[in-house]
Design goal:
This protein has helices spanning 8-11, 29-43, 52-58, 63-70, 76-80, 88-103, 110-123, 134-141, 152-159, 163-183, and strands at residues 3-7, 145-149. The protein is mostly helical. The chain has 2 domains: 3-10 and 83-159, no CATH class; 29-80, no CATH class.
Length: 184
């Protein structure tokens, strides 16, 4: 079965939140951590500053995480970026490409996704292999994308974009037209 990717915005809307019908399905943990830390920074110089415990509880973030951020520890996401083969810009390019193809009705397969990543690496002169879990981790870093199984009809439509199949279909149509033109 072919796996394709569709943006979360095209999947469904979360109607659980009565105030905002277009709230994101999953709020990024790192975003919540950053918002909590920024809020604590903005209130720490006030007369009655919020405690780290209260800020952590209100933003649904672990107290130890906020304490570590206060003491200068950087996010794991930022610390691990240097070890990734693709740069954040290259990953954003791939995410945009996936979103564009999904909008057109033909989301890429796992193989196409990996090929696109290798093309970007080769343009930069890097010829290293991607890890076995690259796709899963790429999707974890880009929450706007989601893997999806497609039904056979969609698979046939995707396969119909193959240049060889398109060419054979065009040749068949032209011979059919010539045959019926002669019959008139």
């Amino acid at each position: 079965m072919v796996r394709n990717y569709i943006p979360k915005a095209l999947r469904r809307v979360d109607f659980d939140d009565p105030n905002d019908h277009f709230a994101p399905l999953e709020q990024d943990k790192d975003t919540r951590k950053q918002q909590a830390y920024d809020y604590w920074l903005s209130t720490k110089d006030q007369e009655d500053p919020s405690s780290l415990h209260k800020v952590a509880e209100s933003h649904k973030v672990a107290y130890s995480t906020l304490r570590d951020r206060k003491n200068g520890v950087i996010l794991k996401k930022e610390a691990n970026q240097a070890m990734q083969k693709l740069t954040p810009v290259e990953e954003d390019i791939i995410a945009l490409w996936v979103t564009t193809l999904a909008t057109w009705g033909s989301p890429p397969t796992h193989l196409q996704l990996v090929k696109m990543a290798y093309e970007l690496l080769q343009k930069r002169g890097v010829y290293e292999k991607l890890g076995e879990q690259w796709i899963a981790r790429f999707l974890a870093r880009h929450l706007e994308l989601k893997s999806k199984f497609v039904n056979p009809i969609e698979k046939e439509r995707i396969l119909a974009t193959d240049p060889a199949i398109l060419l054979s279909g065009l040749l068949y149509d032209s011979t059919t037209v010539r045959y019926y033109d002669k019959a008139r």
